[in-house]
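User: Fold both of these, please.

Assistant: Here is the first one.
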Amino acid sequence: NKRQRGALAKLKAYKTAGLKVYSIYAGGEVTEKGYQFQRQELSESMNFLRGSGAMIEFYIKGDKGNNSTRQQAVKMMQEVAGLANEKGLRVVIYPHSGNYVTPTLSQATTIAKQANRKNLGVMFNLCHYLKEQPQASLKEELVNARDLLWGVSTSGAEENGKSWVQLIKPLGEDSYQQDELLKTLKYVGYKGAIGLQCYQISSDPKMHLKISADSYKDLLKSVN
């Protein structure tokens, strides 16, 4: 798998540069008859990350909202969590727009609870949340996931945005109330890292990161 080999090459480059890797992105697919994911490639990446504390952000492709495939999703996550546990790593289910685990964060939470593995949790991604369930109660979703919420990513976003261009922007160049998100995360006791979504942002990376970092520092002052 060319994508997975590329991911391993990036991990090695990060290590050479002395950069800490907080997580990697991987995934699988479920049907009513079974599930599949790239075991060998994922295991190689896990071996490289052994003992680093990094998490595996795992998306689940499949027929969106098809409850008849849930048991296959549970079985797949049990296997992935088992592989990760051997390497001292944790796994978070990554709700992704258009995939099987997508309508709500609570669906990912339900699968994680049914899988019942000590190193399996869930991740909240603002852009996918706004894409799929903008009318849902953010506080209710995060409270429901509280004990299993181990990963979070945010991005600048427009309140009523529909496209990725509107939902993934530099922080500070948007209308979404980021301070409310941070206050809610503080309320549920979240203490993990918060990642920055950068998908399809066309501006200069250094400028984008500076703008977002400065905005994030200001946001923290308003929350603390």
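And the second sequence with its predicted structure:
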Amino acid sequence: MIIDSQRVTLDTKSAHVHGHGVGDHLYVHEHSIVHDLPAQVKVVAAISFIFIVVLTPVHAVWAFALYLTLMFLVVGLAKLHFPLVLRRMLIEIPFVIFAVLMPFFGSAPRIEVLGISLSEAGLWAAFGILAKGTIGVVTSITLAATTRARDLLQGLEAIRVPAVLIQIATFMLRYSAVVTNDLARMKVARESRGFSATGIKHWKVLAHSAGALFIRSYERGERVHLAMLARGYSGTIIDLYKPNVVRRDWLIALILPVLAILIMTIAWVTL
């Protein structure tokens, strides 16, 4: 996005001096070796690590224990508080519920556990979902907590993620707070008029509110896009802050996926 260079400079300084910016509610401001790594390096390491975990045979229980240990070592290096990470892991609850149900509805053969007939294949599938999902969630939480949203988008651009996806993510981060504030104001307006959603009969009002919010957001997006085009926007977001990536950064970040490859190889060989 071609905009006034002075404004970009001020926005960049504000984000990196004060330690926060648009969409940075997940970021934890600390000084650690993980925080200091460039975003693109961390993204490549995290994605590679998750793919390796997914490719590991589910019967290698010890391998997943080592993966989780490695991730919590990274959490420690990043100086993240473990209670914070555990609270953010609650997002995994729907997957946990799904995994718990799988042994009851899986196929034969079945085994008895505390007098309950469970599917052996379902048990292994449930373990695979829990193990791989948990490790993936911890990896994502660590990446989000150690990388500012602005830097993350810039890192995705550096590893050649399609520009359209980066633009969508950029505007989503920028205007999610605006839409959330609109939603909060509409809620206050309804309650100030004595409205309280207590049953199905109030769903119609909530549906009308959601429709009005959608139309308002759509129209705002049209106006913002036209304003950007009028200022020379050509589909590229220009950022004056460019992190310097050196070989040492890659060597540090790739330690995690390299160790994971070693663990996965042993798991397949000993299977």
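The first strand starts at residue 110 and ends at 113.
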